[in-house]
């Protein structure tokens, strides 16, 4: 699934990504996978929901940093 983009607050843009882990993944395994995404991709946890079937739906977010063009004179 492609990450979605939203603007929250003044000038801060966030990129969101939703990941679903099945119920047979242990809590420690999900934690390791989320830590890896946070360290390598700059993602942070926005929301975690445990669905009625036991799967975990995780919404991750990260800031979009826009670079302004620089002009050399």
UniProtKB/TrEMBL annotation:
Pfam families: DUF5703. InterPro entries: DUF5703. This is DUF4177 domain-containing protein. It comes from Nocardioides daphniae.
């Amino acid at each position: 699934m492609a990450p979605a983009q939203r603007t929250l607050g003044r000038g801060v843009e966030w990129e969101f990504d939703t990941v679903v882990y099945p119920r047979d993944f242990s809590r420690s395994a999900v934690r390791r996978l989320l830590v890896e995404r946070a360290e390598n991709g700059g993602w942070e946890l926005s929301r975690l929901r445990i669905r009625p079937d036991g799967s975990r739906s995780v919404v991750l977010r990260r800031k979009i940093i826009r670079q302004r063009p620089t002009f050399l004179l």
